[in-house]
Amino acid sequence: MPLKHPHHQADHPGHGNRDIEVNPIFAREPLSVPRYALPSGEMEPETAYQLVHDELMLDGNARLNLATFVSTWAEPAALRLMSECAEKNMIDKDEYPQTAELENRCVHMLARLWHAPDPRHAVGCSTTGSSEAAMLGGLALKRRWQHRRRAEGKPADRPNLVMGVNVQICWEKFADYFEVEPRYVPMEGDRFHLDARHAVELCDENTIGVVAVLGSTFDGSYEPVAEIAAALDDLQRRTGLDVPVHVDGASGGMIAPFLDPDLEWDFRLPRVASINTSGHKYGLVMPGVGWALWRDADALPDDLVFHVNYLGGDMPTFALNFSRPGAQVVAQYYNFLRLGFDGYRRVQQTCRDVATSLAARIAELGPFELITDGSDIPVFAFRVRDEVDNFTVFDVSAALRERGWLVPAYTFPKNRTDLAVLRIVVRNGFSHDLADLLLADLRRVLPRLEKQPGPYRSEEDAGGFAHGAETKNPRHPGRH
User: Where is the composition biased (Basic and acidic residues) (predicted)?
Assistant: First the structure.
């Protein structure tokens, strides 16, 4: 029997120190390996693979995960390209110049899609996801405000950012990490996101910008970007305050251009300074890639930009991360080539059709009431009707999970904590057929739920998979 490494007995909080036991019929020696310490020696690659593979079978099925906005399906050709580029580091522009060129092309394509004033000289970059892209947008807003205040001889130590309480959690992180006071507009009644009047009411001389969300994670609705911009235009005429808008288009930035072309939310509005989107959401790429764009060079202060050698020339870069994979950027370019405008339109229209059809059929079941119907981004939320008192949305979520469906249940934030909902995210790969199967399973569990003497589950049993619909942390002073 081989000697055990002294670290084999290392305990792990809450789990004990039992080693992993390997089935000797299909695996080679060793038959026992530590869980929370490095093994003392090597093992055959197939043995290591089998151990990891078997444990990962306990994960949920990604295709049945209706909580996540992240792409869970890709064409084999895209996966093959990603595999071929797995070792390429996106930061190494000089070593991988053609990967850098594909990133540059994607920026220009998005600049045209979002109606930048001069797409040929667009300013933008890829990121690890929309959260990093949002933080870059926020940093640019803060730095522009600081420069202006200092040039006017005014203090620049109390910046604030106005947004709806429904913003994704990355904006709370931005405010915390970069010392910006977040001013949240709460939900009221049937208003579940930011509106123009309440946004303007919270703006003052220290406001670095207003964040407008194109596709709220709470219910899938678009915020009225054009109305918010118009109200800020009026504010400037009345007071001289010039407050820019950043559009968090994590989801809607890759939906609205194809399905709502007449909706003005992007750089067609002069008040919009920057936009972020997620390539690995409705950009249809596997995680993780995001994009940040600014309307022009003036919107991105030069002192935030670093310069690297690229094909013998200069290429500006702006990012929080250094090393990150180039494979997802390549996959984004592949999707742009493969689908084109009409292909993206067809994919996104199918997602919206599935969402609106499924929402309507769920509403017809009787116990449920729609909050949204999937007609903005293909995401909708629904609640249990007030007169239903023997089960909750949390009971429904748990019952669907028995069949593998991951449908999050959560309560809305401050001022509407009385509202508990289920949310369904329809992505590419969630077909009409899968929607039929989900509906059949929902019909199957309802009779059992309706026979319950009362609710079995509450918010405490919901788990942690709200994906952006978390309640904002109230511990910081100055929050609204």
Answer: 8-20
